[in-house]
Amino acid sequence: MRALRPLFCCIAFLLSSTPALAQYNKAAGENAPMESVLRTVTRNDGTQEVRETVRPAARDGFGNAKGNQNDLAVDGAFEGQTVAVLQFYTQDFDFSLPKAALKEKGFSVFRWVNQAPSPKALREGLQKACQLWIISDSTQRLTPEHVKVIKEFFDAGHGVYIWGDNAPYYADANVVGQALLGTAMEGNIPGDQTVGLRKDGEGPGLLRRHLLTTGLEYLYEGITIATIQPSQQLTPLLHGSAGNLVAAFHDKNGKRAIFDGGFTRLYNKWDTAGTARYVKNAAAWLVNVERFGDAVVRADLRDTSARKPAPKQ
After folding, report:
1. What span, in angstroms and rounded, lies between the C-alpha atoms of 297 and 277?
2. Cβ count within 10 A of residue 243
3. Kindly report the CA angle at 130 between 213 and 79, in degrees rounded to 5?
4. Does the keyword Signal apply (predicted)?
């Protein structure tokens, strides 16, 4: 019996490290979630009983499971958490749609718009945020000192979402991508299609059975998109309709980042397949509760002011 104790301990540890966290829905990691339904069945003798059956969740018009219960995170799970945004591309894009979606999960949003704050102000703002999103433009705004601050934030385990788009709208995306992940994006490929789940090693589509793609069987790729260059630091997430790598993620050594060549998904054809759910999933995943644990979220709930960044520069 003593010989079995290490095995039991190992199993217990593995179970405790699975993504069944309080912030996540039961559907976490499932592209096509199931739902339980109660139905009344009449027996041969005329009596009735209520039985529970499991069936695929109802689908929306694009083929994805309906309902926020099929997002990665529970509604309101991240109350008190702030997503900080360096938004350098702003044409016809005020971030209102992603902001409204993130609010469903409890996130507030703070943006520096058009210009970067001083490195000192950026560091102070990031101390009050759980993650940073960078939306690149065609002109570089970030200095080496800014990049140093962002790398410190990333190395401490806080999530970073790096957004670019078709050439030349990836100036800062590539600067930060090289510094954090050793990669870049390039090119200009027409997209404007919805892709499904990836079926083979070469074709277009979404990565199957990952927290980021919870509740997603179809996703709009963006209008015109850049292509991410291969890197050992990245795992492919979304291949576009042309087969090019549009989005990939880093999840190693307790650090998380997403590198994405299609920021038009954030404001153009927002109501097309899966965009709002994907944005919510990405923010929930980048909180990195698997590393920091529930205590981080509980601390934020006790003092929500701790997640309010410094005044906008």
Report:
1. 21
2. 12
3. 80
4. yes
